[in-house]
Amino acid sequence: MLKRVGLSALLCLCLVMGGCWDANDIEDMTIPTAASYDIDHTGGQSTLRRYLITTLNPNLIPDAPKKYRIEAISGQTIGEIRSNRHFQSPRPYVVGMIQVNVFSKEVAGLGLRSTTDILYRSPAISNALMLAVATGRGDEIIKTRSENYQDVGYLLIDLLHNAKKNNFMVSTTLHELARCIFTPGRNPVMPALQTDGKNIIHAGTAIFKRDRLIDIIDEHETRSLVLLRGIEAHGYIKYVLEREGNVADVGTIFAKNSRKVEVTRQGDQFTFNIKILLQGPLVERFTNQPLLADPQALTEIENQIATDIRQEAEAFIEKMQNDYQIDCIDISKYALAHWRQELTPVIDKDFIDKADIKVQVKVKIINTGDLD
Amino acid sequence: MNSSRFQMTSKQLVFFLLGTMIATGILTLPRVASKEAGPDAWIAVLIGALVPLLSLFMIERLCRQFPDQGFIDMSIELFGRYLGGFLVLLFMAYGLFFSAVVVRVFAEITVIYMLPRTPQYVIVVLLSLGIAYAAAKGAKVVGRINELIFYIFLLLLLLTFTSLRLAEFTYLLPIGDSGITAILKSSLSTSWAFAGVEILFVVYPMITRKDKVIKAGLTALGIALILYLIATMICLVVYGASLMQQVLFPTLGLLKVVDFPLIHRLEFLFLAFWLGFGARPLMNFTMATSFNCTGFLGLDVNKHYPKIVLVVMLITGIIAEFPRNTIQALQWSSYAGYAFLIIALVYPVLYHLAAMVRKGGDVNA
Amino acid sequence: MRKLPRNARLKKPVSDTNKRDAVTSLPTGALPPKLDEALEVLRPWLDKNGDVIQRLFKVKGNPPIPAAALYIEGVIDSTEFNRDVLYPLMMHGLGADNENQSDYLINTILQTAVATGQITKAYHTDDVLHALFDGFVILLFDHMAEALVIDIRGGEMRSVQEPIVDKSISGPREGFVENLVVNVALIRRKIRDPNLVVYRTTVGQRSRTDVAVLYIEDVADPAIVAEMKKRIDEINIDVDLSAGYINQLIEDNPYTVFPLSRVVERTDIAAADLAEGRVVVISDQSPLVLIYPALFIEMFQTAEDYYEKAMVGSFWRPFRLLAFFLAVSLPSLYIALLSFQPELIPLDLLISMARARAMVPYPVVFETIIQLTIIQFIIEAGLRLPNPLGQTIGVVSGIILGQAAITAKLASPEVIIIIAIATIATFCIPNYGMAMAARIINIPLLILSATFGLFGFSLGWLLIIAHLSGLTSAGVPYFAPFAPFRFSDLHDSIIRIFLWKFKNRPASIPHQDQKRQGDGQRGGAQ
Fold first, then answer.
1. The domain spanning residue B196 has which CATH number?
2. A130-134 vs A100-104, strand pairing mode
3. CB of C445 within 8 Å of any CB in chain A?
4. Do C343 and A94 touch (CB under 8 A)?
5. Residue C294's closest CA among C134, C456, C433?
C-alpha cells in the first residue's frame, strides 16, 4: 500500500516538474561585467529624465573579432531600460555578474537613491558591487579602448579592487552606499575616474551629501580624506627634510594608517579629537648617510611627515566645515554612540559645521633598513 | 518494526527542539526586532526568550504528572472527552497552520532568491513530498536528521562572521537608549522566533529519560538564544538599525556584502543548505501533528502513521496556497506568532488549572 | 502435399507451458542390510550418473566381508581414498573378531579399520543418497544395516591467493577461497579464542550449500546472533550459488541501493570485525563473506588504514568521503550552478565556461546525460573484454574519443572533466557495493538539480540523508556514528586515531565485552 502511495507521489512529482522554468543555458545569455549610468540628452526634453545605461559584455562566441560588446540602452527607469533592451537583443542578462557600476557626474549630482534602488533590492546582485563616479560621462569610461586588458571591465575591476592596497584611495561598495544613505550622520564617498580614451585613471574622490554629489576632490585631498575617514589603506608618503634652509633628505615611507576618534561635549559644543596613526617601514632615502650617524634624523623625519599630514588634514577639515557643511569623514557616529536619541534629528543639519575638530598625527617608522 | 520508531533520547530532544524553533525566523528576526527597538534589538531578543522559557517550565511540570499518557490522554483526563478532544483538535489545527505558514514563507524566499520563474506551488509540492518522506520514518529518524542538519547549520553561521569585516560597533551604542517601552514592544515580536517549544506537549511521551527533559529543553533554548543573538548582533553592526528596515531578509544579505577571495559569493553555500532551515521545523511539526492525529483517531501507530503523514502534508500544502502574495504570507506568519503565544502560554496555564482542580476534587472526594 | 488429419488442429501444441511436474521424491526408509539389495535400491542413481563410482571389494578377514564403496570422482581426494580407506580395509581388515553381529562389527570397522578423520553412520536411504551427492564416500557392508559415511572431500580448487579486488600493501595477502573448510580455518588461525563459535547449517534445497555463521560468544550481542541465525534458517530457495544470494535474502531492507552488509574477501578484515562483536557469514563455494552488522562509514575503510601509522591512516579517510560526495554531487552541482545560479561562479571561470559551452550545440543537461551514459558504456566494455584488449579500449576511448568529441564540437572539455572526475571518484570508494550506489544516486540527483537548481540539489541530499538515517543493518542504525551521533566512535570514522586509544569496542555495534585493551597500553616505546 505504501508503495502504491509512493509511486503515485512520484507520478505527481513528474507532473509537477512539467517544466524547468528557470533553467537557462549560460551560452544563451549576456553577461555584463560593468555598467555605467548617464543622462540621455538625445531625444529632446521630456518631463521625466531618461537614463542611459551602457554595459560591457564579454563576447561569448568563440570566433568573434572583438572580445567584448558594448550595449547602450535608454529609458526612464532601470526596469524600462531592461525591457527596452529586448527590442535589440534577445539574450537575457545575467545581472548578478556586474562587478563595477560607474555613475556619470550628472547622474550622481541628481541623487543616486533612485538608480540604486533596484540594485539593492535584487537578490542576484552582490552587495559588494564596486561603485565609482566618472568625472565626465560614464559611457566614455566603458567605451575606453584598453590595449592591455581583455576588456575595460577587467581594468576597472582591478583598478577598484586594488585601490587601497598601494595608495590612499577610496573604494566603495553598494553596501557601503546603502548604509550611508539610510543611516543618519553618514555620507558616502566614491572614487572618481577619468578617461582619455585609452586609459582610465583615478582622478580623485567624489564627495556626496546623502546621495547627491557635491564635489570632486583631487588626489592630494583624497589622501587627507582617507586618513581622516579612517579607511585603512597602505600608501607611500614622501617627505622632504629641511635643515637650516637646505634640503637634507628626501625619502618615502610605506605607511598603514589607522585612526581613533574621541568626542567630548560641553553643553552644546562638541569637540572631536581625531588621532591618526601612520606606521610602516622607511623604503627610500636619497642621502646615503646611514641613520646611525644621524640619530635625530629618524625623529625629524617622523615629525616632518606628521606636520605635513596634519596641515593638509586641517585644511581639508576647514573646507569640509565651511564649504560642504557635511560630515564626509564619518565622525558623527561617535557622537551618536553617546547621545543617539538626542542627536539623531539634528545630526545632518547643523551639527558638523559647528563642531570643533582637532587633528593629531603620529608617525612611527618601524624598519629603517639600517643595522642598529 | 514496533513503536520504538517513536522514541527519542534526551540528546535528540535538544536538536529536535532547536530544529523546530530555528526556522525561517532567523532571516527576519533582526529586522523585526529593530523596528521598534533600534540598536537595542538584541536586548529585545533576550527578553523575548523569556516567553518560551516560561512555557517550557510549565509544560514540563505539567507533563511530569502524566508521564506516559501523551497529549491526547492527558487532555481527555483533565477536560473530559469533548472539551479535551476539542483542545487537541485546536492544537492540531495550530500545528497545521504553523507548518503551512513555514512552507509558504520558505517557498516565497526560495522563489525570490533562487528560482524566480518557478511558480511557488511547485516548490510547496516538492517540499511537502520530501518532508513527508522524511517524517514518515518516525521520530527516531527525524531526531537523527535534526542532529545532522544542526551541525551543518553551525558551519553556516560561522560563515556569517566573515561579514564582520564591515562591522561598525558604534551602531550598538548607546545601550538601552531606545527606551524600555520600545524594547518591550519588540520583545513581543521576537518571542515569535522561538515558536516550537509547545511541540514538547506531543513529544514528551516519546522521550526515554524523562528526568533529563528540562535540561534538554534549557539547552535547546539556550543554544537558540545564542544563535539568534549572534545573528541579530552581526546584522546590527553590519547594517545599522535604519538600513535593516529596508532589507527584507537581513541575515541572508550578510553573506552578500563581502567579496571573498576565491568563492566570490558565499551565498551559494547558504542556499545549498537553506533547505535545512525550512525542512526541520516542517518535519518536526508534521511528525508531531501526524502522531497526534493517529492517536486522536485511535488508529494503530505503526500501520497508519505513514498515511496520516501524507494526509497532514496534503492539508498543509493546501493551506499554504491561501495567501495571495509574499506580503500576505509574511502577514500570516505574524498571525502564527500570535497563535504561538496563545498555545505556548495559555494552554499550559489552562491545563495546570484543570490539574489543580482535579487534584483538589480528588482530595475532597 | 499431405493433408493434415482432421483433428490435427484440435490437438494442443506440445509446449503449451514450460511447467512440468517435478520428480523429487527420494526413497525414505532404512537401507537393506544385504549388500545386493542395498545396491539394488541405489541402482537408479548409480546407473544414471557416469561419475558415480562403485567399487566392490572385500574386507580382509576370516571370512572376508563383501563391501562396496560409492563415491563421486573428482569431488573426493582419490589419494586419501586409496591409501586410507581401501588399503587398510583390503590389506589389514579387522582384527581377530569376525562375528556376524552387525552392530558390533560396524563399530569395530569404524573404530579400528578405517584410517580417516571424519566418519559417521547413516541409516536411511535418503541420508545415504544425500551424503553421496554431497561428496562423501559411502561404504556399504554386507549384512550390516548402517552405512559408513566418510568425509575425504578434496579435488581441484583455487588455492589461497592475494585478494583480487581488495589489495593491500602492508597487510597479509590472504583472500578467501571457494571452500568453506579452508575459509573457516583461515579465520581460526587468526582468532584462536576458544569462544569463537562456528555454527554450521545448510542453505538451499537442491544445492545443499554449507553455510557457517561465526561469532565470538562473549563479545557479540546475543540478540543479533540469534536474529542472523533465524534469518538464515528461514531461507527457502533452491540453489545458493554465492554469498550474494544469502545477502539479498537476509538483508534488512531490499529497497535501497546502499549495501547493508560488508562483503569482504580479505581474511584480516573478517577477523577484525569478529573481534568487534560482529557476525560473519561464510557460504561454501563463495570467496566473499558477509559481515553483519555493517555501518555506512565502514564502506570507506580499508585494511590499509589500520596497518599504517595513525596520521597516514587519517589522511586518506577524508579523501574517500570527499570522493563519495564528489561522485554523487559534482555533475549535479555543476548543472545547478551553471544553469540556475551563474552569479555564484567567479567571473573569470564563468566567462570561460560560457565560451566553452557556446561551442556545443545542445544544452548542458543533455550533454551531461549523454556523457554519463557513454562513460558507463566504457566501464562496462572494459569489464567484458579480456585483459589486453580492455586496456586498449580504455586508452582509445578515453583519449581519442574525448579529443575527437571536443574537436567535433560535440562535447565541451569541462563536462568531460567533471564526469571523469566523478567516475574516478567512484573508484576511490573501497567497497564495490557503495561505489555502485554512488553511481546510481548520481542520476536522480542530476534530474532534480537540472529542474530545480540548488533547491533541487539540496532537496535531493535531504532525501538521501533521510533515507540513510532510517536504514538499519541487522537492526543497528546504519548511519552511526553520524546519526545517532556517537562521539566516542568518531575516533575511527573520518580520521583514524592512534591504535592505543582504541580502548573500547565501537559503541555503534552492540556488544558485551566493553574493553579491548589493557589500561596501561600506550603507543611507541614506554
1. 1.20.1740.10
2. parallel
3. no
4. yes
5. C433
B16: closest CA of chain C, how far (Å): 13
- Closest CA of chain A from B116, distance in Å: 7
User: What separation in angstroms does the CA of B39 have from each of B165, B174, C169, C204, C460?
Assistant: 19, 8, 63, 76, 40
Closest Cβ opposite residue C343 in set A25, A33, A124 = A124
Predicted ipTM of the assembly = 0.88
Per-residue pLDDT of chain A (372 residues; tens, 9 = 90+): 567 667 776 776 676 566 677 778 887 888 888 888 888 877 656 666 778 888 888 888 777 777 788 888 888 888 888 888 888 877 888 888 888 899 988 888 888 888 888 888 888 888 888 899 999 888 888 888 877 777 788 888 888 888 888 888 888 888 888 888 888 888 899 999 998 888 888 888 999 988 889 889 988 889 989 998 888 888 898 888 887 878 878 888 898 999 999 988 888 888 899 999 999 888 888 877 766 666 677 888 888 889 999 999 999 999 888 888 888 888 888 888 888 778 888 877 778 778 888 999 999 888 777 665
* Closest chain B residue to the Cα of A128, Cα to Cα: B257
On whether any CB of chain B is under 8 Å from the CB of C478, the answer is: no
- Whether A11 has its CB under 8 Å from any CB of chain B: the answer is no
Asked if A124 and A96 touch (Cβ cutoff 8 Å), the reply is yes
d(CA A138, CA A132): 10
Contacts of B114 in chain A (CB under 8 A): 22
Contact C484 B12 (CB under 8 A): yes
Assess if residue B364 is contained within a domain: no
Q: A25 contacts in C (CB within 8 Å)?
A: 339, 357, 363-364
User: Number of folded domains in chain B?
Assistant: 1
Q: Nearest residue of B to residue A344 by CA position?
A: B242
Contact list in B for residue A182 (CB cut-off 8 A) is 240, 242-243, 245-246
Interchain proximity B144–C477, CB inside 8 Å: yes
Tell me whether strands A269-280 and A356-365 are parallel, antiparallel or unpaired.
Answer: parallel
Domain assignment present for B127: yes
Angle at B306 between CA B301 and CA B309, to 5 degrees: 105
Domain of B79, in residue numbers: 4-359
Residue B11: inside a domain: yes
Cβ-defined contact of A178 to B307 (cutoff 8 Å): no
B365 found inside a domain: no
Identify the CA nearest to C155 among candidates C73, C51, C83: C73
Q: Chain centroid to CA C146: how far?
A: 38
